[in-house]
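Throughout this chapter, every protein is written as a compact record of paired, labelled lines. The reader may check this reading against the record printed directly beneath this paragraph:
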Amino acid sequence: MTIENISNTKAFGGWHKQYTHFSTALNCTMRFAIYLPPQAEQQNVPVLYWLSGLTCTDENFMQKAGAQRIAAELGIAIVAPDTSPRGDNVADDKDGAYDFGLGAGFYLNATKPPFDQHYKMYDYVVSELPAIIEAHFPVTNQRSISGHSMGGHGALTIALKNPNLFASVSAFSPICNPMDCPWGIKAFRGYLGDDQQQWQQYDSCELMLNSQQFVPALVDQGSNDNFLDEQLKPHALEKVAQQKGYPLELRMQPGYDHSYYFIATFIEEHLRFHAKYLKIN
């Protein structure tokens, strides 16, 4: 697999880099960002995969969250993929809506034409991208995963479906019950069709309810998030976790909204949470 380096920026003794490559899973050229902490010059380091939300790219988290300082201290690499396939031949929402199509891949494998030709973000994040990262960079196979909003949904569902691949999972403002919210219903119907058995494969509440192995999970949710009640529904996930005895810590943070100011406030705690479960020398 050939990757092309397109930017290098030093930060906190490490390096933020961007690369492009052709993705076989997505059938298009993709871009990802990686932050390599200074420890990566001497040894292989574990990786936190970060999944961003609707309308984002690989750049939002890396530029706004302020995660590099703590990642450099802890010796954790951070990898941020784009949020959907891109390109002139990639299908988009016919009305150009922000919550479907380009920028809104929802971290699933689409089965409905024409989106099934490119929208395989689940395969990309679970299989193709980690294989690229582990082949080209000084990292171990120890992985954790985190994300925000649509990306929080992606992080939770991917960890729940792959408990042997991820040591821990965290999320900010995740879409917790997409089968029961407007964003999720629109995406699932558009990408998967009307078969709700397919939808269940990408709903954190359904996956947690049927989970056999547990991954330590941390979720932060702002109480002043304008999407809280209609789209995010964290208490639905909390109810399932209590029923299942799942190791989920849900923290309602008074006064915080859906923005990157919220993420920047608590990202250090999330990185330290993951550091407890990643094998760091």
Remarks:
- Residues 163 and 212 are 9 Å apart (CA to CA).
